[in-house]
Amino acid sequence: MQNEHIMRTFDEELRSLTNQIGRMGGYAERMVDQAVAALVSGDTDLARKVVADDVYLDEREREIGEKAVVIIAKRQPMAGDLREIVGAIRISGDLERIGDLGKNIAKRTPAVAETRQAARLFRGVSTLSDLALTQLKDVLDAYASRSAEKIGRTRDSDEEIDAVYTSLFRELLTYMMEDPRNITACTHLVFCAKNLERIGDHATNIAETVYHIITGETMPPERPKEDRSHAVVAAPPGDDTGKI
User: What is the CATH number of the domain that holds 175?
Assistant: First the structure.
């Protein structure tokens, strides 16, 4: 009877960790979505709210870490249970960083909103945000359902995010060359786009952690990376031989 009680309590502690990760993930998704909405619409009030909301994710990461340490000390878990607890620590760290990236996007909203830009400058950012948030949602769903089948496809979707980021980088660089008045806004948008690309990377990290939790194995090391922004070169004015 005593052992049954201990095991039931342990199971409840593990479920609590899973539920906390789920709430943290939903909050991170919402922060990024609101940050991009604020950026596109020039809503500085919403941007300030996103910046303030980041405190919640910081607190939840600390709380999950502390709870995990206590569980390990009390229960001395093995195998799958230990993977579950250590995985929760790693996932909470990635989610906290996603919140930071969302906050950084929100912090750039006032600078972009100072000189209202054409809608075309924001289309690529919105597309990139949709891709990154879809990837994050899918991997959090896989974690909640403990479904390993979707993990490989979720990680592979990072290739599309990298490709869109490279294309957007090229497009924003073109806008800056066409009209110097676009330089300030486009520079901030380049940083925002990079933050969204990094959110995709953190979602990929979570996918690999979830796969390890479920299977006890490490995903194959071949991780697609299609960010080619380092190779984008702007040709001098009047020179058609360069690449953009």
Answer: 1.20.58.220
pLDDT in tens, 86-131: 999 999 999 999 999 999 999 999 999 887 777 777 889 999 999 9
Q: Is 129 part of a structural domain of the chain? A: yes
Reported pTM? 0.86
What is the span of the domain harbouring residue 83?
2-231
User: How many angstroms separate the CA atoms of 54 and 47, rounded?
Assistant: 11
Contacts (Cβ under 8 Å, ≥6 apart) of 88: 17, 18, 20, 21, 64, 68
- Amino acid identity of 172? L
Q: Does any domain span residue 196?
A: yes
Instruction: Extract the tokens encoding 76.
Output: 């001395």
Count up the domains in the chain and report the number.
1
Instruction: State how far the Cα of 140 lies from the Cα of 95, in Å rounded to an integer.
Output: 10
Rg of the Cα atoms in the chain: 21
